[in-house]
Design brief:
alpha+beta, Immunoglobulin-like, 3-stranded antiparallel sheet, 1 helix, 7 strands, 29% strand, elongated
Length: 157
């Protein structure tokens, strides 16, 4: 019996997506450190999967510990924006010592570029088990369809 390994998605597109996320996080930190008068930039960049099944674009955003009421989703052109706040920071008390603190709290913002045109008027969202799912029906791209263009001859004089 041959065992198959679980499907893993690697390759240039996945690596570019990870690089974009890391660059967004670094750029936000840079802007925050150089502009003390501005609102603090997000130190948390949620992980995102973008999947095209042929009929719709499905975006999955990891938002553990975030309430659906604290999340806003908008779309402009080919960019989806997910904004929100992760609450629950531990308040330091007298005599309390932190040995490790890796969880992020506060505001976050994530912009996601769409690979294809979508019908934003029929978009749906659902939040379950810390995963925000955004479902965007695709708009048929006429550039993919072959269209016959008649060739006309010049009229003879």
């Amino acid at each position: 019996m041959v065992k198959r390994a679980a499907a893993r998605f690697y390759g240039p597109i996945v690596e570019l997506s990870r690089l974009q996320s890391e660059l967004n996080r670094l750029f936000a930190a840079f802007v925050e450190s150089n502009d003390r008068g501005a609102a603090p930039a997000s130190s948390w960049d949620p992980n995102v999967d973008v999947v095209d099944d042929g009929e719709s674009i499905r975006i999955l955003v990891e938002l553990p510990g975030v309430d659906a009421s604290d999340v806003r989703v908008s779309i402009r052109g080919k960019v989806v924006m997910v904004r929100g706040t992760k609450k629950g920071r531990i308040r330091a008390k007298e005599g309390m010592r932190f040995f490790c603190m890796e969880r992020y709290f506060g505001a976050f913002m994530k912009s996601i570029s769409l690979p294809r045109p979508v019908n934003s008027h029929h978009a749906r969202t659902q939040m379950k088990d810390g995963i925000l799912e955004i479902l965007l029906p695709r708009v048929p791209d006429m550039r993919e369809k072959e269209i016959e263009i008649p060739v006309r001859a010049e009229p003879e004089e």
